[in-house]
Amino acid sequence: MNITENKLVKLAYELKVDGEIADKATAERPLEFIFGTGMLLPDFEANVEGKVAGDKFAFTLTPEQGYGEINNEAVVELPKEIFMVDGVVADELLVVGSVLPMGDNMGNRMNGVIKDVKDDVVVMDFNHPMAGKILNFSGEIVEVREATDEDTAKFFGGSGGGCGCGCDKSECDSNDCSSDCNC
């Protein structure tokens, strides 16, 4: 069976960035995704489309095809006060190189890397860790099959409503995740 829209794909791969292995999945613990649903980079999917189990692949994605160029506007200074826990700045969290989960004023979740800690501000980088990088993928297709309802539920929170973020709680039936469903 060929990799086409809405097929469940399992693949083993190795991602090299700057000559070093940055990520990998084995045949025993493959990467799983439903093709054509936006789970992976579009150009990654384009490079495996049409392949069958047993096919090997190797391709390179430029920053534009991957996670974009580094955006200097994604490096921001935040007031140290926003890092307060119980009324005290949590200095133990503010370590250069640490990754902190954050949220913006629209409720979007993102990870920021601490670049610098100053007296009154924390410099954070919200670029994707692979922004500006050339991504070299190689691997093999392990399995291709029709995606089942269970597969869809696993990746998208089921058919009983939900916001598409995997929580599938009744509070999220509005599909907008505006309620606190912890997803």
UniProtKB/TrEMBL annotation:
It is an enzyme of class 5 (isomerase). It catalyses: [protein]-peptidylproline (omega=180) = [protein]-peptidylproline (omega=0). The keyword Cytoplasm applies. Its main location: cytoplasm. PROSITE patterns: FKBP_PPIASE. It is found in: Cytoplasm. GO terms for biological process: protein refolding. Pfam families: FKBP_C. SUPFAM superfamilies: FKBP-like. InterPro entries: PPIase_dom_sf (IPR046357), PPIase_FKBP_dom (IPR001179), SlpA/SlyD-like_ins_sf (IPR048261). One of its GO terms (cellular component) is cytoplasm. GO terms for molecular function: peptidyl-prolyl cis-trans isomerase activity. The keyword Cytoplasm applies. Its EC number is 5.2.1.8. Keywords: Chaperone, Cytoplasm, Isomerase, Rotamase. Residues 6-85 form the PPIase FKBP-type domain. PANTHER family: FKBP-TYPE PEPTIDYL-PROLYL CIS-TRANS ISOMERASE SLYD. Belongs to the FKBP-type PPIase family. Also involved in hydrogenase metallocenter assembly, probably by participating in the nickel insertion step. This function in hydrogenase biosynthesis requires chaperone activity and the presence of the metal-binding domain, but not PPIase activity. This is Peptidyl-prolyl cis-trans isomerase. It comes from Mucinivorans hirudinis.
